[in-house]
Amino acid sequence: MVGKCIAFLVIFCFVVDQSWSLTDNEIAAFISRDWIEGNTNLQGNVSIEKSCDTLILRSNGIPDHKTGIFDGTSRSTPNYLLEQDNTWIIPATPRYARKVKCLPMGTIGMAINGVSIYNPFDSKCCDAGLTEANLLDICWGHPNGRGSYHYHIAPKCLYKNYCSNASSIIGVAIDGFPIYGPIDEDGTELTKAHLDECNGKETNGQYRYHVINEFPYIMGCFKGKVLSNAGINKACKCKEVSAENCDPSGEGSDFKCCEDPDNCPYVYNTDTRHGISNN
Ligand SMILES: *[C@@H]1O[C@H](CO)[C@@H](O)[C@H](O)[C@H]1NC(C)=O
Ligand SMILES: *[C@@H]1O[C@H](CO)[C@@H](O)[C@H](O)[C@H]1NC(C)=O
């Protein structure tokens, strides 16, 4: 009986593993790097474990690149950067949902370095790329009130050869679809016009989200089904960007680096994918 169950599970996993799953190369991009983060003096870690029809994502949320100073003293970001105990469960084989789903606050994806990816809204449902850009560090991340470092907009320190090569994977959404950078296979820098409402499209028959340099930056909605035990918030606070009470003084998202490299606000190191410190 047990033997039969195992045989069934093996066949089941094999069948479920076809198509649409992250490839071995994509999974291999999620690795811990040898980098001591300055606020915590800790090294980031990340792992993806296959468990039949799910992938279990784990990380301590510590970035593997330099960060701003988040020791509670900064007037603009009075939060600390703290180690997390992150576990999220995603489908090994993502599937389109019948209807796309709005994005909750908090984690909606995990970057290849284990850092949380958030939706494009600040706590008042304003465009975080406009209101929070001056609260972000040089890699465009910052910690929330519980010390969890996260990206709302293009995690620019994760890209290599930003303008010259087709982008590689920079993370995975909690619905299981991969998230890629902004440069398409043919070298086009993608914009909203190329993508669907969730900020993705199919490439060679595989759905991917793409980070772009305009709202909604990383993702606009979940294209795929999210597991009920995914480990993220369920309710959505923001369904669309609020026009009221939004202070756009943090404006920092108006850039097309490949068209205008001289005015690119990126400080980008093409040799390693680590950002350059502003601390
Ligand atoms: C990351 O490191 C912490 C200790 O700092 C450990 O408890 C945790 O299990 C590690 N997680 C992964 C995903 O390796
Ligand atoms: C980017 O493209 C250049 C030119 O085609 C190539 O030499 C280089 O190896 C590529 N880099 C990566 C990381 O793929």
Average pLDDT metric: 82
Strands of the widest sheet, in order across it, are 9-10-8-7-11-12-14-13
Chemical compounds bound to the protein: 2-acetamido-2-deoxy-beta-D-glucopyranose
CA-atom Rg in angstroms: 18 Å
**What proportion of the residues is helical, as a percent range?**
under 10%
Summarize the main sheet. 8 strands, mixed
Tally of discrete structural domains: 1
Explain what the structure shows.
By secondary structure, the protein is mostly beta strands. It has one domain. The strands form 4 sheets. An 8-stranded mixed β-sheet has the order 9-10-8-7-11-12-14-13, with no helix packed on it. Strands 3-4-5 form a 3-stranded antiparallel β-sheet, with no helix packed on it. Strand 7 and strand 8 form a beta hairpin. It is globular and about 50 Å long. The C terminus is likely disordered. The site of one 2-acetamido-2-deoxy-beta-D-glucopyranose has 4 residues, from loops.
What are the salient characteristics of this protein?
globular; disordered C terminus; mainly beta; binds 2-acetamido-2-deoxy-beta-D-glucopyranose; eight-stranded mixed sheet; 279 residues
Summarize the structure.
The protein is mainly β. The protein is built from three helices and 15 strands. One 2-acetamido-2-deoxy-beta-D-glucopyranose (NAG) is lined by residues 45-47, 58-60.
